[in-house]
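Readers of this paper often ask what the protein records in our data store actually look like. Below, we set out a record of this kind in full and without editing:
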Amino acid sequence: MTMFLTIAVIVLFFLVIFQIAKASEYVGVLKGEKETRKQANKINGFFMIAFLVLGLIGLYWCNELLFKKTLLVHPSASVQGEKVDSILWITLIITGAVFLATQILLFWFSFRYQEKENNKSYFFPHNSKLEFIWTAVPAIVLTILIIIGLRDWFYFTGDAPKNAMQVEITGKQFGWIFRYPGADGILGKKYYKEIDPATNSLGLVWKNDTTYNLKDDPATHDDIVMEQTLYLVKDKPVKFIIGSRDVIHDVGLPQFRLKMDAVPGIPTTMWLTPKFTTEEMRKITNNPNFDYEIACDQLCGNGHYSMKGIIKVVTQEEFDIWMAKQKPAYYVAFPDKDPDNKKATDSTAKQPTMAATKLLNNTVAKN
């Protein structure tokens, strides 16, 4: 019922406008076309100036109201993101100045040069010099912006520093999987046919498989696999090796001002250097619940909205303590091969033997 009522109101609104237009047309016929046109020009000229003033006021009001909700209020959380912020501000200043100049001139000219008795039109059909200027200047400015953007892009996606840590990020519907290399500093091999959502979410090659001609890769045995929460170190470069387990995703790091597609079968890379720990950013934002976010910036299915992960930026000491507590995914999948479990088992097995030896010694002593 509400929908039909809404449609009826919209139709009625357009009918009223149509009738007003027809009535104005009839009035124009009675008054004379020339007088009607003069009156319409005056009204339209006034509305042009009114729209310009109200539009500029609205622009300023929206900026005051919404700017605090943008990411630009706070500094970039990565060194590389500073370059993104820089080119963004340059672009906003240039395009903002052009927008204001053209819109003010557009509305002012419409008012200033409206039809009047003593005004005579001056036809200006062609001027090669002006056409060259208004074509060349924007082309040069845009070319410079593109060159700066490409320079920064190649910097983000180029070779990371030698001391950079490596983290593999894999997107899936609808979450994130993170992998750190173990003590050997090498990310082991994986194969999608080996994926088991319960025990091997990345398909790490942990065993020989003649079906796919795979050999157990020892480099996978110490890899740390985490889901949904990524730990990074402040001031330490990190190289991301990005991929997907199913459809195309996009690693979006809004606070770090970076993003990169996650494509099945085609690894992509980028690197960054975090500037602030999570605790420091909570003070900067004045938000005690703040956490860095990793979001999917590519529509990837019904659960796309929920594909959000957390990034914890900590000090090197805190990261080392956290990493020491993590157990390689290989040992989680095969507890019997975990050296810690073996030690515990050996210790338990020795206890009865020691007790029996003590009992035997006591018996001999009594005899």
Remarks:
- The chain is about 50% helix and 15% strand.
- Strands lie at 165-172, 175-180, 224-227, 229-233, 238-244, 249-253, 258-262, 268-272, 292-296, 308-314.
- Residues 37-114+128-157 form one domain.
